[in-house]
Structure formats: C-alpha cells, structure tokens
Amino acid sequence: xxxxxxxxxxxxxxxxxxxxxxxxxxxxxxxxxxxxxxxxxxxxxxxxxxxxxxxxxxxxxxxxxxxxxxxxxxxxxxxxxxxxxxxxxxxxxxxxxxxxxxxxxxxxxxxxxxxxxxxxxxxxxxxxxxxxxxxxxxxxxxxxxxxxxxxxxxxxxxxxxxxxxxxxxxxxxxxxxxxxxxxxxxx
Length: 187
What we know:
Strand 4 and strand 5 form a beta hairpin. The strands form two sheets. Strands 1-4-5-6-8-7 form a six-stranded mixed sheet, sandwiched between helices. With about 190 residues, it is of the alpha/beta class. It has one domain (about 10-185). The protein is globular, with a radius of gyration of 18 Å. The chain is about 20% helix and about 20% strand. The chain contains four helices and eight strands, in the order ααβββββαβββα.
C-alpha cells in the first residue's frame, strides 16, 4: 500500500500569509500569540501581558475613495494596548511609511465622539521583514519611539515600532538564544 503524500515541511514558508495568520492570528492559538508578543517585546513576570483579544483586522477608510487595508494580526492586550503584527516578504522601500500609516489608523480609531484623550491606549507594531530594511545597521531588531532629539527622553509610550529583519539573524547555538530570538529563528 503506497504512503500518502506528506507535505514537505522542510520547505514550509512560515512567512506565508495564510500560515502566519493561522499560527498567530486565530483564537485557537491565542496562547501562542501571547507568548510571541511577550517574547518579542521582552515582557516577563509582572510586566508580561496576560490576555489577548483578537480585533477586526480591516481598516475601513473614512471616505469612500480612501485606502482600505487588511492587517495580518491585530490584538488588544488585557491593559488596552493594541499590538499589530505584520509580515512582509517582498522588499517594500516604503515599509516604514506603511507601518506608520497602519499605526496611525489603529490609534485614531480608538476614540469616538465624547471620548477623552486620556482614554487613548498605546499601539505597538511588530514588523517581521524577510529583507533588510536598514542595511546601515548590523542589528536584526530595531525599535523606535518618539523621543527628544537632545535628551533622548521618550515623549510617550503610545508609539512603539519594532522592525525585525530576518535576513540578518545568524544562529549558532539555539540553546543560547533568548526567547525572542527563538521565535525569530522559527520564522
């Protein structure tokens, strides 16, 4: 009796949109999503997020001829922080602009008429890139905030952007990797 065809998981593209959304964007795997986000953001102990709720990933434009966007993964953490995880396989020279646009749309849709600005919650973006967005840097993970040019004091924790360039990571001993690095190595 012949063996059934088994997909070749050696060649499985973990950055494939369908696979990625099934892995980290589904209610059935919310524990994995929470683990991934806490690992990438280096949150542990009392600082770790403990719950996650999946949000609508479609960004509808405010006007009829506006740009419509579909996000890969958008979740709301237990404290109200929203985390957007985006995977980009093809080189996009405007990836920073795109990420900032998504961040702005997510942030701006939090308030409704009569809400207070104090009700706004942080939005964190995590961009997994299968190309080198920042060739001038040796590091594979770069994080950005709004800060004072002179003192480097962070103005607000409401904007945090992570860009992870997968092409730059080199793994020598998986046993020595941090939790975030193990996730990145997986992809």
